[in-house]
Amino acid sequence: MSREALVHVEHLTRYYSQTCAVDDVSFDLAKGEVLGFLGPNGAGKSSTMQMITGNLAPGAGAISIAGTDLLEQPKLAKREIGYLPEQPPVYRELTVDEYLRYCARLNRIPRSHVKGAVSSAKERTGLADVGRRLIGNLSKGYQQRVGIAQAIIHNPAVVILDEPTVGLDPLQIREIRALICELGKEHGIILSTHILPEVQATCTRVQIINRGKLVFSDTTAGLESRMNATALIAGFHATPDLATLQQLPGVERAEPLADNRFRIHYRDSNPTEALVEQSVAQRWRLYELTPERRTLEQIFIELTCSEEQHTHTADTSQ
Residue 274 sits in a domain of what CATH number? Predict the structure, then answer.
């Protein structure tokens, strides 16, 4: 385990009857990281989150929070966790100040420090001007802010946010994302979301779980590199010879499209220069040449669906 790891998960496994929901999952989270945790429904994401927060016992494996073993010293470890579930646990009949004071006492903050803790949480989440307002009269975006405030009021090392922008309008989403980025400077953040652009906007690292296993784990920069173009869309006035296209340096294969257009796949060497030279030599009259960049959604579907297809093929072959 890294000395600076705020969350250390090692060989985490959980079964429900005969079904393996989480299968040998391991990862670390450091201070200053915002980890985007993605997965399709039923992939094991919620079970993993519940085990990390101490709400579900693992079948096997170890979890450490800020250097404390969650299974051996659960109370001590949970002091370093702030959690916002998908439905914020707010009391609509209380004012923001009343609710945050209540949360401060739940987190065993000494009475003499409660006022300062409430003030700090409100300041960090943009609630300084609404302390006396009833939570039930606040907008959905401000109620989410109250939920985040209760998660950080005891200044935990780790903050876990489950779908924090669901149901918000575009302006509210932008504000909450900015807040998450700001919190990520002082804490380790785990962000569970189904909104793929949210990962690109807020996270420094991404991992994808599918069928209980981690199928992708990399930095956002690594993800961006994976999204870089690996194909060109080329259009010609005269139909080129497919075999000639596929023999160009760097080309893996050429896929015919409509209107004399082709998708030209490559891996290591971009064939643009060779393609232009060949077009001139063969008089194909090239009129379009566009890099095709993969989206995060395409990568997500590729990783999760290919895994499911592989498993299905293995099952049917037995």
Answer: 3.30.70
Helix runs in 6-110, H state only: 45-52, 74-78, 96-106
Domain-located, residue 188: yes
> Is 66 within a domain?
yes
Nearest-angstrom CA–CA distance, 59 and 53: 15
- Give the tens place of pLDDT for each residue, 176-230: 999 999 999 999 999 998 888 888 889 999 999 999 999 999 998 888 777 776 8
Neighbouring-strand partners of residue 207: 37, 217
- pTM for the full model? 0.79
pLDDT digits (tens, 9 = 90+) for 256-308: 999 999 999 987 788 999 999 999 999 999 999 998 877 778 788 878 885 44
Q: Please check whether residue 297 lies inside any domain of the structure.
A: no
CA atoms within 13 Å, Cβ hemisphere of 203: 29
The CATH number covering residue 51 comes to 3.40.50.300
Which tokens is 139 given? 């907008």
The residue out of 114, 135, 155 marking a domain boundary is 155
For 251, the 3-state DSSP assignment is strand
CA angle 111/92/155 to nearest 5° reads 40
